Each structure stands twice: as C-alpha cells, then as structure tokens.
Amino acid sequence: MHTARMKKDPKVELLRQFKLAHQTLCIKAINFERKYMVGYVELTIHPLRVDLRQIKINSKQCMIYTVMINEQWEADFQYNDPTLEICQGDGKQRNLDFYQSCHLNTMSSVNPDLSNGEMTIDLPPQTGPLIRELRPFRMTIEFSLENPQGGVHFVLPDMEGTLAERSAHMFTIGKENSSRLWFPCLDSYSESCTWKLEFTVDASMTAVSCGDLIDTIYAADMKTKTYHYFLSTPTAAPNIGLAVGPFEVHVDPTMHEVTHFCLPHLTSILKHTTSYLHQSFEFYEELMSSRYPYGCYKQVFVDESYVDGVAYATMSILSTNMLHSARIIDQTLVTRKIMARLVAEQFFGCFIAMQSWCDAWLTKGIAGYLSCLFQKRTFGNNEYRYMVAMLVKEVSDYEQQVGGILLDPSRRESNLPFSVKNAHTVSPRYAEMMEKKSLLVIRMLELRIGTELLLQVLNKLLALSSAAAQQKLLSGTWGNMLISTCSFLKIIYTVTGKDILPFIEQWVHQSGCARFFGNFVFNRKRNVVELEIKQDLTARGGLRYVGPLTVTIQELDGSFNHTFNIEENKTKFEITCHSKSRRNKKKKIPLVTGEEVDMDLSAMDADSPVLWLRVDPDMQLLRQVVWEQPDYMWQYQLRYERDVVAQREAIFALERYPTPATRLALTDTIEMEHCYYKVRTQACTCLTKVANSMVATWQGPPAMMAIFRKMFGSHSCPAIIKQNNFTNFQHYFILKAMVSSMAYLRDVHQVCIPEILRFLLDLFKYNDNIKNKYSDNYYRAALVDAISHTVTPAATSVSLLTGQVVSSETLSGDMKLILEEITRALNLEKLLPCYRFTVTVSCLRALRQLQRFAHLPSDASIFRQYAQYGVFRDVRLASLDCLIDFIRTEASAEQLDYVLSMVETDKDYYIRHRILRMLTINPPFKKLDLVQSALNTDTLVERLWKMMNCSLSFDSRLRCGVADMYYVMYGRTRPSCLPIPESVLVLNVKEKRTTVSPTMQYAASISTQDSIKSEPSTSSAGLVQQSVVEDCEVPMEVGGEVVVPTDSAANQNTPGPSGSKRKLDSDSTPFSESLLFAEDVVSVEEVDVKQEGEELEEGESLRKRIKIEQTEPSSPLPPTLLLPTATSTPMVPSAVSRTASLERMHSDSVSRLSDDSGDESSTLVQPTSLSFSSLPATPVVPSSSMSTPTSLDPSSSKLHKSKKKKKKNKHKHKHKHKHERSDRERDGDRSERREKSRERETIQDLEGEVVRPSKEDKDAGFVLEDVGAGPGADLFSSGGSNNNSPGPPTLVDEPSSSEFEVV
User: For residues 1271 and 1131, is the Cβ–Cβ distance under 8 A?
Assistant: First the structure.
C-alpha cells in the first residue's frame, strides 16, 4: 500500500546526456596584487547517449581561452550569461512580480539540473566514434579569473611589507552552487565525481583545499610550491573550496586527522578555541554508529569571511572573529555551536548531498538536528528546550509577518515576492528561516517515529553512501549519496515500516504553521474541564492542522496528559478531572517530574482542582499558542513547573497581569538559584514592565534593587558592588540582565528614576576586574547600554526657548554625566581596546540614542568615521546601524547615498549584506507611510532596480537582499514616485474624478446636446505628471504570454475569468501597443438607457461609450483597451443615498478581490473592455477639439430598446449563474475557505483599492456595459457637476494612494 502511494522519484541525471566521472582543477598561478588566477580544468565525461553533440557546463566571470578534447581536437563553444541582466530590454517595468518571473526564468536557463549552463560546447566530429561506442573522453578548458566580483575574495591589508607580512590571503565565498564563479564545472549537487586538485602558490603561502594532501613540490627556484590534493570520495562541485594565505598550522593534539589554520600571531587563541572540537566528532560517531566519512578535516580561520562558517568537503572556512581566549565567556557558546554545526554538515551536506534545491531542507535540517543534539549533550537539556522554543517563535513570527515557508517547492510556488524554487532567487532572511524550520521538522519527525528509529534511518543512509563511495562510476551506485524527499520516505518505510507521507504532506509540501487559541472553564457539578480550541486560518502564514494535539493538565493529585484529535477549526473537548477540590486540607502536590511540593493554594478557586493547563507541552508541532487562564494559574506555573518552556510561557503571560502577586512570583524566580539562568534573565525583563505598569502603586525600593544588592553588593556596604568574579556563569549573565532591565524603569512622568541613574553611574565607578580571571568587556558594554536606556526624549527643545543650538553645553546635569561616561569609555577603548570592541559598539549606539531624543544635535559624521573600511567589522556594523536610523529619522538623502554606495563597492561582502538587512528592517520609508518621504524619488527606484537587475549579478545574496528592501519600500507593484506611464488612466474612486496622461487629448460630449469643444490646458499637464498612485497596475508580458482582457461587449453571456492567456504570436499586438496613444482623440457619449418619459430607477445610471479616433490612418487601431471595472453611482436625486450606495459598493467590491494565483474557477469579475472592431478607421484631422453630432441617430430609439432588452436578458442570465455558483460553493466549502484566505492576503498586500462590481451590483444596473468608468455620473466630470452640462476634464492635483487605480 505504501509503495502504491509513493510517487516516483524523478532522477535528475536522466535529463543529462552524460555522466561526470572525474575532474582535475589546476591553478597555475595566483597574483594577489592583480587579484588574478590562471589555470585549467579537465573533465572526464562518460556519454550516456550516442547522439551526444553538445555539452553545457557552468562558468561565470571566467575568461575561457581554449577547449580541447583528449588534448587533440579543439572544440567550439558559445558563452551566454543571461544572469548579467535579469530584465533584458525592459525600459519601464519596475514591479517585483515582473522581476520575480524574469529572475526565475533566467536562473532556470543556466540551471545544470535542467541540463543548462552558461557555456555550450560543440563536440568536434572526431569524437563521433568515441560517443557511438559510449567511451569516455577528457575535456580540458583553460581559463583565467581577474578581479572577481564573487566566488573568490582577496584580502589585502593596506600596510607595508611582503604579502606574508601583510597577512594577505584569499578564499572561496558564495551561496549554494557558487563554484562556477571561480572555475568551470557542473555546478550541481546532483553531479558528483572524484577530484584531483593542484594549486601553485608563493613559497610563503599555504594552500588548503578539499581531500587528502598527497604531496607538496617546490619549484626549482624555490619561489613557488605546488600543493597536490586528491579527493577519492565522489563530491559535487559546490562542495569544493580553497583558501590560500600565510597560515599558521596547528594539528589537533587529540585527533591528528584534524588540522587548524589561522593567520599569523593568532595560534595561541586558536589552540584554546579548537580544544573542544574532538568532542563533536566523538559524539556524532557514537550517536549514529558510523565513522566520520572522510580521512581528514581542516578548519581555516580567515578575515572578512562571507559568513561566520561554511562547510566544504573535508574542510570548513570560519571567520577570525570566532577565535577567543580563555578569558572570554560569551563568545565561547557561539563558537562551539558553529563549529559543531560545520562538523555535522560534513556528514549531511557534503558526504550526503541534496539531489536538488527542493531537497535542501533534508541536509540542512538533519545537520541542524544533529548539532542541536550535541548542544543538548554539552550545555544541558534546559538549553536545548529553550533554544527549540525560541526557534519555534522565530519561525512562526516570520511566517506571520512575511509569509509561509515552503520546504519542498517542487509541487507549488509560494505567494511571496520572490521565487523559492531556486537557491539564487530566495530572500537571504527566508533562507535562514527555512534552515531553522527544517531543523524543527526533523525534530518533529523524531517525536513522531522515535529517537532510536530516526537514528537508525540516519545510520542506514550513511551506510549506503559509504558503500556507494567505494564503487566505480559505472556501478551506478553514486546516486545513493544523494538524498531527496522521496528517497527519504522510502528509507524510513524500509527501516521503520511507518508511512510518514501524511506528515510530509502537511509540514513539507505545505507552508505555514498552526495557530491555536484556547481557553477552558471548570464545571464543578460534573467535575470536568470544558476546553475550547480554535485555529486562526485568516492570518498570514496560517496552516490548517489536522491531527493529534496533547494537552497537559496539572491537578491537585498530579499531572495528566490528554491527547485530542483536531479535525475542525473550532473544537470543544471535555476532560474529566482525577482529583476533587480540597478545602482546608494540607497535602503535597505531585508534579510531572515525580517531585512533591508544598503549595499555597489560597489564591486558587476553592471549587476547582486545576492548577494550570498547557497545550502541546513537548512542542510536537510547529505552532503558535495563545492560551487564556487566570493569573494565579500562570503564577503557579512559573513557580512550580519544572519545564523551562512552561516557565517562559508563564513569564510572557504575566506581563498582562501587573499585580502584587505577579511581582512576588517574578521576584522569587529571579532569586531562585536552581532555576535556569535564561528564565531568570527573562523574569528581570518582565518585572521591569510590571513595575512600570504599577508605578502609581509601587511601594519600596525600585524593582530588583534589593535583589541586586543582596546578590552582588559588598557585605560591609551593599550599595557598592563587589569585585568582579565571573566564575559562576549564571550570576554573570543575571548581573548583565539586571543592569539592562533596571535601566528601563520609569516614574509616573515616564522619566528614568534618579536613584537608578545614580546606581548605574556608581557601577562604572566601582567596577573592579583586577582579580577576575575572565574579561569584563561584555559587562562594561552592558553598562554603557544601560545608561543609554535611561535616556528619555527631551521635554522641550532648547533652540525654541533660548535660540541656542542643541549641544553638549545645553545638556541637563544628568545628561552631562551620561555623556561624560560614554565619552570616557569611548576614549579608553582607543587606548586599551577590548575583545571585539564591544564597548565601542555600545558607545556608538548610546550616542545615537542621545541624538534621537534631541539631547545632542543630529550629526552623522562620527558614524561615518567608524563605518570606513579598515575598522573592525562589529564597529562598522554598529555605526552603519546608527547611520540607517539617522536616514530614517532625518530623511537624509546624502547618508542614504553613502550607505548604498557601500552596498555597491565595499570590499567586505558581509558588510554589504548586513547593510541591506538593516535597511530592510529599518527602511528609509515604507509603502504604507501616510506622508510621502522626500527620499521616495524615481532616482532611488532606478538605482535599486539597476542593482537588482545587473550591478550585483555575481552575488545572489546581495541581489536578493536589494529585492527585499525594494519590496518593503514599494511593495510588489509599480512605485508611486514614478511618473504615470503614457496612455494610463487614473480613476479617483471617492471623488469621482479622473486623471489622464498628459500626452492624451480628450473631447467629451453628451449625446443629448450640441457639439462641445474642449481641450486640456497646458498648465495642468504638470499636475498630471505628479498625480501618481501607490499601486500602479501595468499590463506586462510574462514568460512569452500576454494577458488579454475579454471583450465584455462581445461576450456578455459567456462567463469566464477576468483575462485569458494566449501565446505571444509574431503578428499579435503587444500590450504596449494596445493602450491609448498621444495622438489619439477620445470622445464620450452618454446614452440614456430609459425610454422617453420613463423615470430613472434606483440602481440604474447612464451608460457611456468611449470612441477613439486615430489621427493617422496608417497606424493600426489597437484591438482592446483595458480599463478597470468600477461601480457607478445610481442617478438618484438624494446625495445621501448616492454616498451610501457608493460606500456599500466599495466594501462589496473590495471583499471580492481575488488572489492572482487562484485557479480559473475563482470568482473573478471581468474587467470591462472596449471593442473597436465595429468602429471605422476614418482619418481624423488633428485639431485641438473634436465635434460630435448634436442629436442621436434616428434609429437610436430602437437601439435603446434593444439594449434594454439585452440588459434584461443579461440580468436573468446572471441570476442563473449566481444560483449555479451558490451550488458550487455549497459543494466546495473547503475550497471557498482557502479562496477567502487568499483574498484577505491580497487585500493586505494591496494598498491601492481596486474596485470591482459584485453580482448584486451587476444585477442592480451599476455596471457600465460598454466602458469601465468611475463611480461618478460622468467619466470626465466632477461628482458635483450637472450631468447635462459637461465640461473639460477635471484634473486631480494630489491623488490619494488608496483612492486611485491605474489602467
């Protein structure tokens, strides 16, 4: 049964007509000054088909010289890299949807998994006999690389001396599939082979690469030497790395197979940092009962690293900032986690690789899961569970804010502003969150099938891969070294006999996480707990969960678990209590750990035996839980529950209950020595919020002051802190947390308590670290952060009162003390710098805090000084963060230009990436800002678009980072700051006015009056240029298809979607030609739909007909004009009823907005279009005005009758369809709910409101049958004008973004 349900695993190698058996990479010379490399690659290729004529491989930014076959025949080749410019030949499109489509198509055109590549090599005719016999041949490609913009990074410090004395070095960088950036290859994880690597470097340099070092040969002149590496295990090209530099070598004393490399003068801290690495190897081998798959392992620490750590086969490249001495506490935890993760990636990621990007969640998730188990072993179970809880919160928050994370996008595309089907198109932040979600899903699988069985599955995978690695290529077993979602399902079924396909379908093939809302009531008569749990499916990133859910209830007689099956969005359950309520009976309460404790039950309900209740306590689901229960239950849970996750949940909940009981519970938690330190630090933060809420009734010293003096004060004088002694790590972290939390305490005037400020300044004065064996740099940085947090906005502006400029002399006494302390710490850092300049980082942020709150003049010069290249990376990042905040608050175009220039040209790729991340989190302006920023200019749009499109083509992380920033500021549609494109009509939905492109001329006329001449004034043309909208929908060509609007006049009785798609033929008219042109003349006729003597009923209005006459008979007439369908106001005498009707239609039409990704069965309203097939192409003499007939045609009365009859038939026809649609809705309730969810997401994403008529509006006669018009009675007249007195077009001065739509 399982085999029948399992879908066939698509083999990627079947798409390729050859197989790669071996590759040689030889770098003959490396020139650091020119940033130049020259060498060749040799690929051993086995043909799989006799008709093999071409071979496509990957190569970017390399200069290719020759391609030789078997060193005898030269082959012709073509080079084409479409990724250099994503939107080629585009001049006007500036919306992300268009860019996303082009980006995915471009990356697919060079995807080796689809048998594509940048280089196309034509095999010479001499290779015909070899190919017909399917015999292997060698293909040699000579290449060079100069001044690379990605793939390889050269670090040349600006100082005197030789390259070795300057510590010049180079190393490989990039995201997945980035090896093509520095040598020609098949840049795919699915194409593995054995490798021979040769690197010739200067005699003072060391070359570190993948595989075993076979030999090192010096040249005859002893100036150069060549390193020979051989990798016998089949490995993919993306897992090949290189690092060259004057490295110092340290062989691990515990494991001689492990070697560490660092830059000069760092060996001492290298030894301490790597002294614990052998523990991770031993743990993984013992856990999975499998040996390390390679014969050696190398760690290289470099400067200006692309990421903190990246794994290649048999080696890892880490940042020098990960090194630390024995005196450093905080960095130790971070470095050990990163190094353990890189070792785990040697097993899953390098040895066992993903088959395609859609299977990346497996290698990343398993490696992350193994590293988490090592952290659990090293740092304890509390650290592990707390970390899992934090990961669940991060992932759920991201999915709620941005959108769902789709782990396997092979079946569907997400609704995000970027494509998730390629590693080079996803957002950098999305990639990080996908990695975390993958870890959580593997952990959920562990809870589903059991830890032992999952470890057996991993052991089986390693065993199969190890056996395959020993075989030759022709054996066909190298495919076992690749892992895919389908193969993972099969091996789990083989080992465990369990079918996890439903689990994979829910958590891997779907995006989102479950969101539960619940509460309960105790029924005393029946002694049951009535539980109600709801799911929120309307929120972004929501997932409809169906399956088991565990609820734990703590009663007086113990803790009991109950499992319920969730099937509906709202479910009610009943739990029978095992214990009765106790009245005045003393008895110990048994906990879930088996421990029995005494509790003060006076606070609880005397009739209820329930102490507290938890949902999904073991985090078996990826979920977000909002649980409601009384405050005393949260206090009991915080005091007596032994699970750190439960304590964390209780602390978050108690922020909403600022009572003396909550204060006492939090205080006891902080003082509780056996409580986990992160729970205690979180309790400090919560107590600050509670104290600020209780400031009017607070009694006693400020919060945590007594606890601090009790724990850290001197015995003789508690007001003076003891000498630093950080041997107790828990006390060290609590000390920092208390200092930071107390700085946020405020009085009734929302100003920092004076006693707190004096207390913090005394901590600076009495800080003594002489006898401490650990560094206090992080503690001093926390003190600087604390005094900056005491700063509140200045009450009045000095310049307004006295005319003085804000400066340090005009500061208050307290602010002067704070500024003096910050200045002293900053100057001391220049003389005695601390580890990673942590104090400098805090001082820069404190100075920005003083500027933001108007205590110092806003000046960006100091931050620009610290942001220059050559300053330590952490200091640069802090100063850039302050600069970006300065840009946001001051709207400084100069500083924005400065940071964007750094994104384009800075030498440190990590700095460039972090700038974009900070600009995304704190952008200069947002799409939804009410006031348009002065920075929102078309120049900025063009600059960002150029960076996305072509400037950053060699670094996909930067390119996608710019796209993230672009989305935050402009959304998915055309930026509002751009001028209105030609032939675009803007409709003001509320004010019933229109704005037309200034290149279009109009002539409006009413059919019941004489000829009326009008011409647009030249003075108002400038106003039209400024009349723009927030969401500018522009028709576009996507993927060779054109969306063509259906002709409502010709297809009135043909229901269908809003637009049909057809292939772009050579003789068809593109959309750019189907709109109105500058020389076109538009005339409007109003035709009364009523007969003579009949009154206009409510819901009916005048129909309008737009005629377009061309000035040049030679140019073909556009076949269609796409206009938005907008509801029209019924022509009733009451203005009130007209306004009410408009508001009703507005709300109805907005609620019917449908997601663009929906299928054809979605309920969409056809946009009204014009048909010009019946209009004569009569030449019109260009003039400033047009004349129209003064009376209707004699046959117009018959025309009115026929149209009225057609309208009645149309009315009946629509009722019929409405009835049929309700049946379909009744039959497909689940599909409708998904449809509504997508509609709500679309409405949230859209800022401009596109008004479309509902069925009821159509039936009421609100829809203009021939023309999509605004809601007013006249298309080109203001809402208050007389219908019988048309005038010139009314131009809108400043259209509101929510009231306009562009056609």
Answer: no
| Helices of type H across 300-348 | 330-347
Cα 772 from chain centroid? 43
Q: How confident is the model at residue 1054 (pLDDT cuts 50, 70, 90)?
A: very low
Please, what's the largest Cα pairwise distance for the chain? 111
Q: List pLDDT tens digits, range 685-728.
A: 999 999 999 999 998 899 999 999 999 999 888 889 999 999 99
Alpha-carbon torsion 1014, 1017, 1022, 1027, what sign? negative
Rounded (10°) angle between helices 938-946 and 956-970: 150
Q: Supply φ then ψ for residue 506, to 5 degrees.
A: -80, -40
CA distance 1173 to 1165: 23
Place of tokens 């049964």: 1
DSSP state of 858: -
Q: Which of 200, 256, 250 minimizes the C-alpha distance to 228?
A: 200
Q: Which two tokens stand for residue 1035?
A: 């028709």
State which amino acid sits at residue 465.
Answer: S
CA angle 923, 926, 931 (to 5 degrees): 120
Q: Which two tokens stand for residue 314?
A: 């048999």
Buried b (16+ CB within 10 A) or exposed e, 628-661: ebebbbbbbbbbbbebbbbbbbbbebbbebbbee
Pinpoint the alpha helices (H) of 348-471.
360-379, 381-401, 428-449, 451-469
DSSP state letter for 479: G
The single residue listed with the structure tokens 């500083």 is 895
As a whole number of angstroms, the distance between CA 859 and CA 883 comes to 9
What's the pLDDT tens digit per position in 114-170? 999 999 999 999 999 999 999 999 999 999 999 999 999 999 999 999 999 999 999
Q: Which residues contact 989 (CB under 8 A, 6 or more apart)?
A: 1126, 1146, 1249, 1251, 1270, 1271, 1299, 1300, 1301
Q: Name the token pair of 550.
A: 């565990």
**Spatial separation of the C-alpha atoms in residues 843 and 788, rounded to whole Å:** 9
CA dihedral 1185, 1190, 1194, 1199 (to 10 degrees): 60
pLDDT > 70 in the chain, percent: 72
Assigned token pair, 1299: 């009231």
Question: What string of H, E and C letters represents the secondary structure of 626-666?
Answer: EECCCHHHHHHHHHHCCCHHHHHHHHHHHCCCCCHHHHHHH
How high does pLDDT run on average in the chain?
A: 79
Rounded Cα gap, residues 744 and 752, in angstroms = 7
How many other β-carbons are positioned within 10 Å of the β-carbon of residue 161? 10
**Nearest alpha carbon to residue 624 among 517, 548, 760:** 517
Closest CA to 997 of 1034, 1022, 1014: 1022
Q: How many CB atoms lie within 10 A of CB 1070?
A: 11
Q: Which residues contact 274 (CB under 8 A, 6 or more apart)?
A: 250, 252, 260, 299, 339
Report d(CA 41, CA 878) in Å as an integer.
Answer: 43
- pLDDT, tens digit (0-9, with 9 covering 90-100), for 245-284: 999 999 999 999 999 999 999 999 999 999 999 999 999 9
1039 and 105 in contact (C-beta within 8 Å)?
Answer: yes
- Give the Cα separation of 199 and 242 in Å (integer): 9
Q: What is the pLDDT of residues 1111-1123, one digit of tens each?
A: 333 333 333 333 3
The model's pTM: 0.77
Evaluate whether 1200 touches 1038 at the Cβ level (below 8 Å): no
Q: At 227, phi and psi to the nearest 5?
A: -95, 130
Nearest-angstrom CA–CA distance, 434 and 425:
14
Instruction: Output the pLDDT for position 812.
Output: 85
**Partner residues linked to 45 by β-bridges:** 20, 137
Query: What is the per-residue pLDDT for 1163?
Result: 35
Residues whose CB is less than 8 angstroms from the CB of residue 851 and which lie 6 or more positions away in sequence, other chains included: 857, 858, 859, 886
Model confidence band, residue 1287 (pLDDT cutoffs 50, 70, 90): very low
Residue with tokens 């301490």: 272
